[in-house]
Predict the structure.
Amino acid sequence: MTERNTRPGAEKAVRWAFHLTLGARLKAYLFTGILVTAPISITFYLAWLVIDGIDRLVDGVLPATYHPDHYLPFSVPGLGLLILLVFLVLVGMTSAGFAGRLLVRLGEALVARMPVVRGIYSATKQIFETVLAQQSDAFREVVLVEFPRKETWSIAFITGTTKGEVQRLTDEEVVNVFVPTTPNPTSGYLMFVPRSQLVPLSMSVEEGLKMVVSGGLVTPPDREMGN
């Protein structure tokens, strides 16, 4: 009697444990599938948005007579990006010559006469020249800075050595430091910090950006400790 009464309970417990184990496995497989496919899918989706946006931009500028889709029975994805790259290379080659430099100077002189446009052009040009210069130290070093208060540290990027009036009015040598916000690193705070108050990090700029964007979920390895 006792054996008959306990057997259904034992079988029920086994079935419950089996379903629990199966559910846990399915849940683990689901998370693994998301972890594998989500980064790849998002990367391809963002790349496709960029390529498609450039293709649409080139389609609107390029005359239909010269567009390859006018002669081909199908559209070629990424063709606009290729045309843009070729155009930029040709512009660079032309600007390197005497005639190209003369045209650039005439264009800059014309822009300099426009009250609002000249300020935007000057700032944009200076930013691109600073970031793209091979000798530039902009965004090439990751540091820790005490922000927003003492004993609270934030990841920051050195954007250059402070010059001009800011450096003249400070007692110590200060550097330009950009403190990005999470999860959008394009916004943040510009600070002028004495170099002695910065803690340099061995992580690369890419690793630092990943850590900022992920909110600390992605932590780069400690190269000093070997892990």
Observations:
- The chain has two domains: 1-96, 142-213.
- The two ends are 61 Å apart (CA to CA).
